[in-house]
Design brief:
about 475 residues, Rossmann fold, about 5% strand, alpha/beta, eight-stranded mixed sheet
């Protein structure tokens, strides 16, 4: 019986039907060939990135033999020849040069065209560039996408985790482009049909969209405290005492506004996290969407922190120049002259308590500014990308709250002997530094409440028991926050 089986096997497994080669020597599949129309900065940078990601690249050019330097390893040929060699074609030319594509329509039949074009301003043309391209080449599948990538980002490889948008009428074409973009390290978001192309083309024309809310908040706070201090310091002195101290507006008044805005903006970075934590405690779960206003607030915390750091830098620079100001030097000289006129042998009175308060004030300011800079550095992609999630979370959360605590203490030490003085309340209004301490103090108190053992156990229970309290379908729609 064994002889029969052996014989049967011998007949089925013929030598010519089996390819025997040592392990690890199997022929690797040939890399996919992609085509790029356009040899400008964007086309060259995209080709370089595709080559680095393992693709083969061919350029289509009107002048194949004089199109300038291209990435090493790429081919260049005429538009027609390049289009016939690849099924996925990137259009890296301006809209005003699309006319040649209409004449090439037969060569582009069934191809996937990725339109990367942008315009110089909104509503520059009556229809979106991608819609116009689809009308010129109706037999191709046009996908609008990758237009938010710059040549600089492609050259320097700053693509990991960067979000790009796609839209198109063909699901298969969008899938092919999405797979390629994922291989480049990009995160892809499908925006639907080609009717969304106008929206995608307007994205690069937006001016700092993520910075608008933080800048508006900072400008509003700055304007409020500037006029508040102008009334309390300059106008009050002129009306009540007949003194013209308007020269203080440029440095002294500004140096009071900068730290106030900086501290409040830093507090606003951590206040939404505290609000979110209490909201989760109230709901009994962290797997439910936050209100839109809170969600938007939390998404711009990084920008708020960087704005706060900018104001802290201004405060530090302004503080350094205080001793060289004319008014300060004049005041010091006048004090010395007055003391000598009264009694030449009497030394200046030294207040030990005031010395401790002043040194503590400066030390807290220096430590707070140091931690400020550390937080700002770790927010840079090149630095934050080198940290593990635990390290990044420790710096941004633990050190962040420590920074807020030290800067708040810096403000309290500044006014330690002014809170109960009637002369501090000019026209029955509290000093500006008292007002600016309200928000950080509230944040720190609420954070301390969250650290209580009973609250901490509740948060742990929420994190561990969400599967028993929430339906499965809600998980896909939820947003998680780091408390």
């Amino acid at each position: 019986m064994s002889m029969t089986v052996t014989g049967g096997m011998s007949e089925e497994m013929k030598p010519e039907s089996v390819s025997l080669r040592p392990l690890g020597t199997a022929a690797a599949p040939e890399p996919e060939l992609l085509c790029i129309f356009g040899t400008g900065d964007l086309g060259r940078s995209l080709g370089l990135r595709l080559l680095q990601s393992g693709y083969r690249v061919v350029y289509g050019s009107r002048r194949p033999h004089s199109c300038g330097p291209l990435p090493q390893g790429a081919q260049v040929m005429s538009h027609a020849a390049a289009a016939q060699s690849a099924s996925l074609i990137f259009i890296c030319v301006h809209r005003e040069h699309y006319d040649f594509l209409e004449t090439m329509a037969p060569h582009l039949e069934g191809k996937v065209l990725v339109d990367l074009s942008n315009n110089l301003k909104k509503d520059m043309y009556p229809e979106a560039n991608a819609a116009y391209l689809q009308r010129l080449v109706p037999g191709a599948a046009v996908v609008k996408g990758l237009n938010t990538l710059s040549a600089w980002a492609l050259q320097n490889g700053l693509l990991a985790g960067k979000q790009v948008y796609l839209c198109g009428n063909s699901a298969g074409a969008k899938q092919a482009v999405a797979e390629m973009a994922t291989k480049l390290g990009l995160t892809v978001l499908d925006r639907g049909s080609l009717s969304a192309a106008r929206e995608l083309e307007d994205f690069p024309l937006q001016l700092f969209p993520e910075w608008r809310l933080p800048l508006r908040v900072a400008i509003g706070i700055t304007a409020f405290f500037f006029f508040y201090l102008l009334i309390r310091d300059v106008i009050y002195a002129y009306v009540e005492q007949g003194k013209d101290i308007s020269f203080r507006i440029m440095v002294s008044l500004a140096n009071k506004v900068f730290p106030i805005v900086s501290l409040i903006m830093l507090s606003l970075c951590y206040l939404p996290g505290v609000i979110a934590a209490f909201l989760q405690l109230y709901r009994g779960t962290k797997y439910r969407r936050f209100p839109d206003w809170l969600d938007r607030w939390m998404l711009c915390r990084k920008q708020m922190g960087l704005v706060a750091l900018g104001f802290a830098f201004l405060h530090a620079i302004y503080t350094f120049i205080i001793p060289i100001r004319y008014s300060v030097r004049h005041k010091l000289i006048s004090l010395v002259v007055d003391e000598m006129k009264d009694n030449k042998t009497t030394p200046f009175y030294f207040d030990n308590t005031e010395a401790w308060a002043t040194d503590s004030f400066y030390v807290l300011g220096i430590l707070g500014f140091f931690l400020y800079v550390l937080l700002g550095l770790t927010s840079l992609p090149s630095v934050g990308g080198s940290l593990s999630w635990r390290e990044f979370s420790f710096i941004q959360s633990k050190l962040g709250h420590l920074t807020l605590s030290i800067c708040t203490a810096h403000g309290y030490v500044y006014g330690w002997n002014k809170f109960l003085k009637p002369s501090t309340y000019k026209w029955y209004t509290p000093p500006a530094f008292m007002l600016c301490l309200i928000v950080p103090s509230v944040v720190l108190v609420l954070k301390a409440l969250l650290l209580l053992p009973c609250v901490d156990r509740t948060l742990t229970h929420i994190r561990q028991g969400w599967e028993r309290t929430q339906p499965r379908e809600e998980m896909g729609e939820s947003k998680v926050t780091n408390l």
